[in-house]
Amino acid sequence: MINNENIIPLAAMFQAGYLINDIAYHGNSNQQAFDTCINSILIIDSETVLDVYGDNIQNLKVGFDLLAHMFNKENKQRDMDIARYVLGIVHLEKKLRKNKDIENKLGAGITRAKNQAETFSATHENVIANLADVYAETISTIQPKIMVSGEPSLLTDTNNANKIRALLLALMRSTVMWIQKGGSRWDLILRRNKIIEEAKLIQYRLD
Questions:
Q1: Alpha carbon distance 24, 28 (integer Å)
Q2: Within the chain, which residues score under 70 in pLDDT?
Q3: Secondary structure of the chain: what % helix, strand, coil (to 5)?
Q4: How far apart are CA 188 and CA 162, in angstroms?
Q5: What is 4-206's CATH number, 3.40.50.2300, 1.10.3890.10, 3.30.390.50, 1.10.10.10?
Q6: Distance of alpha carbon 18 from alpha carbon 13, whole angstroms
Q7: pTM (2 decimals)?
């Protein structure tokens, strides 16, 4: 089921996937889009879905642009990588829900990072490194692991690796919200045209 509430976290999921791909292949990413994804991890309580993303749908423009042109033939390899990350995390989210020990450890790690961010900032390299560790110690221990494709020299860079792991954590954050709002992996398979249609309507408002 695709609705106004779950199209927002879905766009955030694909935005995180897009940024992972950008860092893995180019070593950089859209800073505003990156900040939005990282901040979303640390917003534990919110009144609305959009509050998690800075209460501004413009912060998810990268994600909505991607959804609106999903699986464009010109970007086939890029889109396949991004879809693999998204579907991989969706699969792991189901396993995470069944593992209360890892779920509790994840919650405690995010709370520590949230407290740390109050001293530094959400996107300070120390906080990003902390979030990367949280991912490595929790979600990354669930099989199968998400394998990120990219340039070897960029993937082995510590800062890039930390950002990618933190973005995978952000992807999980949005996936949890997407599921809570009625989303399912079958939407990505059976309702692709509806997703594109809804994303284009929002994209039109953003342009």
A1: 8
A2: 1, 71-75, 207
A3: 75, 0, 25
A4: 28
A5: 1.10.3890.10
A6: 9
A7: 0.95
